[in-house]
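Q: Could you predict the 3D structure of Large-conductance mechanosensitive channel?
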Amino acid sequence: MSLLNEFKAFAVKGNVVDMAVGIIIGAAFGKIVSSFVGDVIMPPIGLLIGGVDFSDLAVTLKAAEGDIPAVVLSYGKFIQTILDFVIVAFAIFMGIKAINRLKREEAVAPEAPPAPTAEETLLTEIRDLLKAQQDKQP
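A: Sure. Here are the predicted structure tokens for Large-conductance mechanosensitive channel:
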């Protein structure tokens, strides 16, 4: 029974739950970014470079013989993956930059200093009275 209690305490800790939520949201965000790159960004880039689809670029190292498939070096898929990575990294950079700007704007608003407590106010008055008495003495 102790093992079950330990597992329950571990599984419902705030950090574990927060991490799980972060992973789930990250996976969903990854799908959004992949769709954005593949469906929105890459078609105009392909159009700008003459309609070249990088994923089709390949070199056949050895032709197919009978039941043995061809040996193909698919360097286009590699180029496409690198390009996708650069676009995703830039999109994430811009998103984080915007979030950081919002955080800085929130932090810029200075907080008013806390009002002195009644005890501090009384001590300040006593200090001022003692200083006034010292100034009167020759």
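Q: Anything worth pointing out?
A: The mean pLDDT is 82.
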